[in-house]
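Reopening: structure tokens for the magnesium ion complex, inputs below.
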Amino acid sequence: MARTSDIEKAAEVLRAGGLVALPTETVYGLGADAENPAAVSRIFQVKGRPPTHPLIVHIGGADQLADWVAEVPATARLLAEHFWPGPLTLVLRRGPRVPLEATGGLETVAVRVPDHPAALALLEAFGGGVTAPSANRFGSVSPTTADHVRAELGEAVDFVLDGGPCGVGVESTIVDVTGETPAILRPGGVTREDLEAVLDRPLDVPATSHVRVPGQHPSHYAPSARVVLVEPEQIAAEAQLAQEQGHQVGVLLPSTLAGTPVKAHAVVPVPASMAGYARELYGFLRELDQRGCDLIIASLPPEEGLGLAIANRLRRAAGPR
Ligand code: TXA
Ligand code: MG
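Re-run output (same inputs, fresh job):
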């Protein structure tokens, strides 16, 4: 747990218009005072992110939601009650407190209450909202430890609040509740099944893209190595072939193939539980980059529960660059 003095320091940096990397239960965020347009704009510079790509506003509790949005529909209230604090982001109509810099010019705003003690302590000490995208350069893999943030953004961040490794490991589920029917824009830490149980209705999930978001391109959450998805039974043959062609191959070996001999530069056995896999996924991708792999071979897990978010990130990592 982060020290009280670190929380105070982080809150001061936010008040002064600086950038703070903060831990959340999903991934580390690159935070700024949501109401300071200059600070918010710096996030885009540091990330190399197009200014039309909207950010999430993090708040300290569901009771603050009405301060940030034009209205709180019943569906939003229901979902907030069930899943906050937690890995769920709600897209709602923007309230006047949210500058257009934070929403990429959209009249909607994404809001969430993170479930991490250090993030909640910081939000309380700061008192306002914190806009934060994942604390990585645009298009690359999200950081799940403070070391990932330091390695990737270094001096560009004014303060890194270290809250240990993230427990969920993939980003929040984004649900648009501005329309008549709620829509999942990005699968994530809250499962589709859990949302459907609470809403008592089936939900559609976009296959690879986060629709309705401007400036999307398919490759995202991507390591430097090229990612190739194959059926599990083809992994060993594909890895061997690519090695013979001169690639440094990294393999994410599904738990169903545990113990199978695979000829590759680096083989990472994947946890059997989807929660374990989600927690480690981005760390594995970073590790394979670091070990010098130029090609990563992986398979999609079953697309249910957290497997849906894992498959979504793997597909996008494998997308055209
Ligand atoms: O778990 C998370 O959500 C992490 C932690 C730090 O909270 N944050 C995160 O932020 O993943 P970012 O910026 O990497 O991804 C936010 C996504 C983007 O795909 C963005 O397009 C979408 O949220 N988004 C933000 N505002 C939106 C809006 N008004 N309408 C639709 N999508 C929106
Ligand atoms: Mg991101």
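Residues 209-216 have pLDDT under 50 and may be disordered. The pocket of threonylcarbamoyladenylate (ligand 1) is lined by residues 24, 26-27, 29, 53-56, 87, 89, 91, 103, 106, 108-110, 114, 132-134, 171-172, 174, 185-186, 210, 212-213 (CB under 6 Å). Marking as resolved unless the reporter disagrees.
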